[in-house]
Amino acid sequence: MLKDSKAFSGFSVNDIDKAKDFYGETLDLQVDKNDEMGGMLTVHINGNDNNILIYPKPNHTPATFTILNFPVKDIEAAVKELKARGVRFERYDSEYLKTDENNISKGNGGPNIAWFTDPAGNILSVIEIDS
């Protein structure tokens, strides 16, 4: 029944207008606001193949985990471009997770990855992949 469904994910934010600006302007994604559905946002990834629903929630609490990963071929270039757009990346320096001077985690047992947050505090990442 659900195997052919076009499932999508969603998450909350505390300020829908800031989210619209961040995802639409800063991250340069296609974002539509649906006022008939309480001002929810639809973020289109890969045209209309993958949609993400962002909904307003006054008592929003940011997730403590990565809610959205953006695969990139060149993480150094992606981080540099996003920083030029005003994105601030997280820095980690623990025995389990370290980021370098460019805020990229390399050689920590997984892919090269860099984390940042949206205006609501939700954690996002760019993650380097080969394909």
From TrEMBL:
Residues 5-129 form the VOC domain. This is VOC family protein. It comes from Mucilaginibacter aquariorum.
